[in-house]
Write a structure and sequence with these properties.
It is a single chain. This protein has three helices and no strands. Helix 2 packs antiparallel against helix 3. The longest helix has 32 residues. It is elongated, with a radius of gyration of 16 Å.
Length: 72
Amino acid sequence: MRAHLESDIGFYYTVGAFTIAVFVVALGALAVITPAGIGTRELGGLVVGFALFMVVYFVSVTVHQLEDLEEL
């Protein structure tokens, strides 16, 4: 695990995975605490927005990785 975190790309992927884990735990906590507090429409918008954010994040990490390979 430590070797994975020593590279920039490995660190970025780990941060992305951690962000997704925090989001899933937060949604689970929200469902337990207030099951009627958030509607399907709002939940769908929240999930779709977060998914789009994570797609852009991982695409930018991949582009960064490709730029590093191009410099070699």
